[in-house]
Amino acid sequence: MTIAAVRTHRLSAPLHTPFVTALRRTTTVDTLVVEVVDGDGRSGFGEAPQVWQVTGASVAGAEACVRELLAPLLIGRDADDLQAACALVHRAVVGNESAKAALDVALHDLAARRLGVPLVRLLGGTALRVPTDVTLAAGDAVDLAATAARRGAEGFTVLKLKVGTDARGDLDRVRAVRAAVGPDVRIRLDANQGWTPREAVRVIRAIEDAGLDVELVEQPVHRRDLDGLAWVSDRVDLPILADESVFDVRDLVEVIRRRAADMVNVKLAKCGGLQPARTLLDLAAAHGMGTIVGSMMEGPVGVGAAASLVAAYGTTAVSDLDAAWWLAWSPVSGGIRYEGASVLLPDAPGLGVTGLREAKIQTHA
């Protein structure tokens, strides 16, 4: 059975709450859903989220890459030759990791559907429930405390607090959130590259001295400043998690070589999909690094693939899979859903997505 068609769907869906970090503010998920169709009419789905400030990927750019270069390479190929098809995608173009990730995931989804098993089973796992943190968007201390209390009441036990917008006020923000949720909720920080190395050390040491029981600090300094990242890691006790500094294997090798971070956040849209993500997780584990799997601001297709990877491979800390939770409504039929602080994977073939809902969708064959 061969691959008969590759379709692209431009999708925009609103968030229920603005998402604010040190890098950007958004009120929508803007993404490209890629659909790979076999000769029997089965479809596998993947997703390329638009995140200008992190990956540099756009919906238009990902669509051009898929339609003009990658799709013609796949049409007519054996739909069951998963490894070869994914390898072809990854070799075909430099960069464009979000476009590659969308096709990589769509090919895995289609393979699982053709076997009649959930994607997690294709990846070697069986769990259908995956815990997640939830993000507290950047804001002032009072608003953050109120939001933290609401999230705790909703059952979330790991909160990711966005900091880095104002180093002088970050200690007060963390203190306010800790007071609002008490000692039983874990708090992790994400500066999204917002601090200088000196600011990072100053803020993190103040948090340590205040006994605020923070779990980890994610990407405190600019992604390219590995010397600064290593300098921070060497001067604080809290674990440092590299995110934007690690897109691919070469990036992770360099972080490991410099001992620049204690942990790594693996994201499909950064590294190019499930195949390279598994390589990154294996490499990190081999060198004693902690791991989580994260998500961009993306929809149920991308988050479902990331959650399936976590369910099959595991991570050393609770992963960051809340992106689709921020949506005001799901733009797909089927797929994942949230229950408290868990992502529930459907017990259905592949990602369990049965179609796209009528929304702001533009489809191209």
UniProtKB/TrEMBL annotation:
Query: How and how many cofactors are bound, per the record note?
Result: Binds 1 Mg(2+) ion per subunit.
* Mandelate racemase/muconate lactonizing enzyme C-terminal domain mapped to chain residues: 141-239
Q: Which SUPFAM superfamilies match?
A: Enolase C-terminal domain-like, Enolase N-terminal domain-like
Pfam families reported for this sequence: MR_MLE_C, MR_MLE_N
What cofactor does its activity depend on? Mg(2+)
Q: What is its EC number?
A: 5.1.1.-
Which Gene3D superfamilies does this entry report, sorted A to Z? Answer: Enolase-like C-terminal domain (3.20.20.120), Enolase-like, N-terminal domain (3.30.390.10)
| InterPro entries to which the protein is assigned, alphabetical | Dipeptide_epimerase, Enolase-like_C_sf, Enolase-like_N, Enolase_C-like, Mandel_Rmase/mucon_lact_enz_CS, Mandelate_racemase_C, Mandelate_racemase_N_dom
Keyword vocabulary terms for this entry: Isomerase, Magnesium, Metal-binding
Q: Which family does it belong to?
A: Belongs to the mandelate racemase/muconate lactonizing enzyme family.
PANTHER family found in the cross-reference section: O-SUCCINYLBENZOATE SYNTHASE (PTHR48073:SF2), O-SUCCINYLBENZOATE SYNTHASE-RELATED (PTHR48073)
**Protein name, please?**
Dipeptide epimerase
